[in-house]
Amino acid sequence: MTNKRLLPVSAKDMIKVFSKIGYQIERQRGSHVVMSKGEEILIIPNHNPVSKGTERELIKDAGLTVEEFNNLLKKH
User: Name one Pfam family in it (predicted).
Assistant: First the structure.
């Protein structure tokens, strides 16, 4: 059975997951953390929890599926 359900997640946890796949924190401006991996950039709102729509878009932009993201989240 696949787990495609989006789990509620904080910005801190999203940053940990994206760090595992090679993204690095570049800077923080206000309530947004900018992470990059080469030319790819993710802007993560520093909220707890991150809204579901934003979470889904960031996961997609990072090249992950919801299932892959959830597996990485459980391993931290």
Answer: HicA_toxin
- Decide: residue 74, CB within 10 A, 0-12 exposed, 13-18 middle, 19+ buried: exposed
- Tell me the residue type at 39: E
Residues of the chain with pLDDT below 70 are 1-3, 76
| CATH number of 11-74, picked from 3.30.920.30, 3.40.640.10, 3.65.10.10, 3.40.50.300 | 3.30.920.30
pTM for this prediction: 0.87
5: helix, coil or strand? coil
Question: Which sequence spans correspond to the domains of the chain?
Answer: 11-74
CA angle in degrees (0–180, nearest 5) for 12-16-19: 135
- Binning the chain into helix, strand and coil, the percentages to the nearest 5 are 40, 25, 40
